[in-house]
Amino acid sequence: MAEKVHKRLELMLPELEELESTGVFSREEIRAIVQRRRSLEYRLLRRPSQKEDFLGAIQYEINLELLCRHRRKARGVISSRNDSAYGIQSRIHSLFRRALSKFKGDLKMWLQYIEFCKRCHHDNTLSKLYGQVLSIHPRNSSLWVMAAKFEFETMKNASSSRALLQQGIRANPESKHLWMELFRMELLYVEKMKKRRDLLGLEDPVDEKTGNMQAVKAIPADIDFRLQFLPICQLFEGTEQRQQEIYDNVRDDFFTHPLYWDALARRPWAGQQAVQDSDVIKLEAQSEATYEEGIKTVQNGDDLAKLWAKYSQWALERVKCSTHSMELETGATRRLLRVFRKALDTGHVTEDMFSCYIGTLLGLGLSEEAVQIGSKATERYPKSVPMWLLRLRTLDAVGGDQSMEAVMAVYEKAIHTVPKEEALPIWVGWIQRSVNLYTMQDNIEHIFQAALACGVPGIRDVLCVQYVDWVFISVEQSKLAMCTSA
């Protein structure tokens, strides 16, 4: 072991002598560097090897290299290709290779080495490094994308980038990330080739074939995956035909799927920046007609509820985007309420839609209708704790129009309707409201006793603490009242 350490230290002598002769480090500092490296080398050679020892040695050399660069710049020392700074970098490369030969499966260490090569602009080393790490971690799609991006952007090698992504797809045929990046890279390559041909005055057409259809064959049953190609297309000019092909392809396989009709209804807005108010009205009418057609087409109950949810979400977005114009905002708000009411009439309102519906009504000051919709929400989803809490919050927001007895009756009904294991938020709300309203002590005591007797340990444990606190506060308040009266 000592002989190996001594041999490695001897190889560092020219580098250390150069550091001293140029005044970057003093003799005492050189001696400290040698002593530190000797200690680190002995740690690296011990058995079994420890990853932390290699990481510590690498970090020491990185810090040393940064300090060396800083002092060279401060002292005006001109660097050369064979100077000590490159010697330190070579040692860092050597340490990474030694570490990775022992810990090949450590992806984090591979990524640290890749980051170091990027910082030092060691592109040739980095190109080989990607090949090594991909042979060990072929199932990591992010690594394939990193390698392809490096080849395309740094090495300017589109063919190699494409080959890497195709190789990654062969290893991970169901990786959506890889298919998306292949599609993006090919569109980017086509765009660059078009610009180059326009600059040179060439008229030969560019081959615009992309991997979209191969991706569809590899992952045929995922409509969301297919629709994700559309935003990528919209980043590039002249892709209208390709977008149409995607829409046609989705229509053929998912004609009754809510995501297809949602994407189709939003299509007029793709790529739109500043739109005149008159055009906005036309585009909104077009989207609304598409949603209505989809609702007539979709038959499955669950899918129909999802489409109504998408419809209402779009209508809400239009309200938020129309605040600059009173006319547009008024029209968008009326449309949103119309969508909610039609969905309610057909029985396809989701829990999120109920929440949005009531919030919209309260914002418009339609408190009476908001209370009615809250009641319908609990009728539609009687076992849903969020729906009961929504109804109770609505009653609180409306305020004086609702008697305290009516609100307490809703709390009691909620407790007896929802699964008792999920009733804790309702118990807590009921007790808190009773305490805040200074309800009769006997009533609060009754609520606590009913909650503690429900037989659910989680509820009993939480409310038991609150019960003790409430009793203590009540006793203190009684003492204070007696002292005041005396």
Mean pLDDT: 87
- What is the number of beta strands? 0
Amount of beta strand:
under 5%
Q: pLDDT below 50 for ≥5 consecutive residues: which ranges?
A: none
Fraction of residues in H or I helices? over 70%
Spell the H/E element sequence.
Answer: HHHHHHHHHHHHHHHHHHHHHHHHH
Estimated structural class = mainly alpha
Q: For the terminal residues, how far apart are their CA atoms?
A: 91 Å
Major sheet:
none
Cα-atom radius of gyration: 35 Å
Backbone shape: extended
Q: Total helix count? A: 25
SSE inventory with pairings:
Layout: H1 2-11, H2 13-21, H3 27-45, H4 51-75, H5 84-102, H6 107-120, H7 123-136, H8 141-154, H9 158-171, H10 176-200, H11 212-218, H12 223-227, H13 229-233, H14 240-253, H15 258-266, H16 277-297, H17 301-320, H18 326-346, H19 351-363, H20 367-380, H21 385-398, H22 404-417, H23 424-436, H24 441-452, H25 457-485
Helix pairs in contact: 1-3, 2-5, 3-4, 4-5, 5-6, 6-7, 7-8, 8-9, 8-10, 9-10, 15-16, 15-17, 16-17, 17-18, 19-20, 19-21, 20-21, 21-22, 22-23, 23-24
